[in-house]
Write a sequence for this structure.
């Protein structure tokens, strides 16, 4: 989305044609090449996530987005711009994988609508931020002459700066995902994750809890599993009953599920892993 404000000016700077109508057509090709490539790549990425795991596919998609951005910023001609955008679509066909991952994290079906409802809003928010950055940072030599004087690389590639900034954001997100994102594919959950181990070590430097103390993430995961079991099997905690006959009613009634577990679906839905996936969804926008 960050290329929309300046893609027309970028295509016109390639001097492909003098016809303004054809310039708009070529700009449309550059924009749509990403979506076209992503359309064909979505199914293979989904299949690959079943084979190697969700996390590697999501991280590869984010890395591909960063690479295509840098390549697009350095594009000297229309063919290179088209190839870079198509490459970004091929390497970024993982939106379906993100939705599958959220469904695997939020296993309680009653809470899944909360997670899915926020994803379109995050996508729109990412599109707004990306487009704003793209328009504000394009052609910095003419827009910010004091900070970007002539004779620098930004004069030769006037649309490199917005792609560098967006690439830096993607790189930061890639690091966060590597360190803190958990695998959700059932087949690969028990596989060792060196990045996650490093992330836990980093968190331990700022955590005063003892090593044997249970962490918040472990407690949240355990609570989620127990909640899912209760919902699926419709199990209710039994009340107190006396074996001896008595004319008096039982002092304790059976505890209902609604009374045992507070109805606070939002807090249970948006745990750390769901927030990371939604954040990645916004970055891809």
């Amino acid at each position: 989305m960050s290329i929309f404000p300046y893609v027309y000016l970028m295509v016109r700077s390639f001097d492909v044609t003098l016809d303004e109508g054809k310039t708009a057509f070529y700009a449309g090709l550059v924009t749509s090449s990403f979506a076209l490539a992503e359309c064909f790549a979505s199914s293979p990425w989904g299949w690959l996530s079943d084979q190697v795991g969700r996390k590697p596919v999501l991280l590869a998609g984010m890395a591909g987005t960063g690479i295509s951005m840098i390549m697009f910023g350095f594009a000297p001609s229309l063919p290179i711009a088209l190839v870079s955008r198509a490459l970004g679509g091929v390497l970024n066909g993982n939106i379906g994988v993100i939705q599958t991952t959220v469904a695997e994290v939020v296993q309680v079906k009653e809470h899944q609508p909360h997670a899915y409802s926020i994803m379109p809003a995050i996508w729109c928010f990412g599109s707004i931020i990306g487009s704003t950055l793209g328009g504000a940072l394009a052609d910095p030599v003419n827009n910010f002459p004091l900070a970007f004087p002539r004779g620098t690389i930004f004069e030769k590639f006037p649309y490199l700066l917005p792609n560098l900034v967006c690439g830096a954001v993607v790189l930061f997100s890639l690091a966060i995902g590597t360190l803190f994102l958990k695998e959700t594919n059932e087949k690969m959950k028990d596989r060792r994750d060196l990045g996650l181990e490093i992330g836990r070590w980093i968190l331990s430097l700022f955590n005063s809890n003892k090593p044997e103390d249970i962490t918040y993430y472990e407690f949240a995961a355990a609570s989620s599993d127990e909640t899912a079991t209760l919902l699926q099997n419709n199990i209710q905690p039994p009340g107190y009953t006396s074996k001896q006959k008595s004319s008096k009613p039982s002092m304790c009634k059976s505890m209902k599920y609604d009374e045992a577990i507070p109805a606070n679906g939002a807090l249970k839905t948006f745990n750390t892993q769901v927030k990371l996936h939604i954040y990645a969804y916004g970055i891809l926008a």
